[in-house]
């Protein structure tokens, strides 16, 4: 039997870290992230001849620069973050180092650091920074092929924010990778209750239903995703996979060709090409 690359839950490995994709640029954004940099303005004593500098703005800019470097040059960012920690950088410097480790592919170290960060943050800082750190830890463990640890981190975060759709999606990805498909569906059911117009949630649930051998439910979810987002290439890819499993080669070909046309340079398009090639080889070989 030819094994097709059906790519469960497409784009799991392409998840971006939402909390680091738009680094803090203002003191207001920094405070929203739960960090407090230095004393308030009225505590800063500056010479009359020098302009007053809000230390929180300065530190926020340093944090943003460190995160940007973590994405561009993680080795250099690690050195900078450690130096910053030695001079009182605190949690933002630790967070920057963790993200740099994630960028360079050291997912286990990043996961541990992010979990430690969530555990040791000051009690009065609020739940949002802790939730963000745990969410990123979950994604690090997932990228490091540790789905049980990823699910545990997401569960910790969900205890603080049980209706957070992104956290439910984090745990759904982890449970799927662990082969816990019905629990994946449970998380996606709740996520869809909270965000019924998100096409990606229906794509993921459709993929999960395919893995529990419920093709009707899989198709319904994937078609719903296309109703919301007619050009959704992940839904098209999954419909092609479902059609091929059911023996409908022409429908599979149509869906996979649509993926290639709409996103020719994507990873899904490459997988679609490989699947089409395998299907053609199988047909030429005379087997079903």
From TrEMBL:
Residues 1-24 form the signal peptide. Keywords: Repeat, Signal, TPR repeat. Residues 24-58 are annotated as: Disordered. TPR repeats lie at residues 165-198, 199-232. The keyword Signal applies. Pfam families: TPR_16, TPR_17. InterPro entries: TPR-like_helical_dom_sf, TPR_rpt, Ycf3. It comes from the Bacteria. This is Tetratricopeptide repeat protein.
């Amino acid at each position: 039997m030819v094994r097709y690359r059906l790519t469960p839950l497409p784009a799991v490995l392409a998840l971006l870290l939402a909390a680091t994709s738009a680094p803090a640029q203002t003191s207001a954004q920094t405070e929203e992230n739960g960090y407090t940099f230095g004393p308030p303005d009225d505590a800063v004593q500056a010479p009359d001849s020098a302009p007053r500098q809000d230390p929180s703005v300065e530190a926020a800019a340093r944090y943003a620069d460190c995160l940007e470097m973590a994405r561009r040059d993680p080795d250099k960012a690690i050195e900078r973050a450690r130096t910053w920690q030695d001079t009182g950088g605190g949690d933002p410097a630790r967070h920057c180092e963790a993200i740099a480790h994630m960028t360079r592919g050291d997912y286990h170290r990043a996961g541990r650091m992010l979990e430690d960060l969530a555990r040791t943050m000051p009690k009065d800082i609020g739940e949002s920074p802790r939730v963000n750190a745990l969410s990123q830890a979950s994604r690090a463990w997932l990228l490091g092929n540790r789905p049980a640890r990823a699910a545990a981190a997401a569960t910790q975060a969900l205890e603080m924010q049980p209706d957070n759709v992104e956290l439910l999606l984090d745990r759904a990805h982890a449970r799927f990778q662990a082969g816990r498909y019905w629990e994946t569906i449970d998380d996606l059911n709740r996520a869809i209750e909270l965000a019924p117009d998100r096409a990606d949630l229906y794509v993921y649930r459709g993929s999960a239903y395919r893995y529990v051998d419920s093709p009707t439910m899989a198709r319904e979810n994937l078609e719903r995703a296309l109703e919301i987002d007619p050009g959704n290439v992940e839904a098209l890819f999954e419909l092609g996979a479902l059609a091929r499993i059911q023996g409908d080669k022409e429908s599979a070909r149509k869906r996979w060709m649509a993926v290639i046309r709409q996103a020719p340079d994507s990873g899904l398009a490459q997988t679609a090409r490989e699947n089409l090639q395998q299907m053609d080889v199988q047909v030429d070989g005379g087997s079903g």
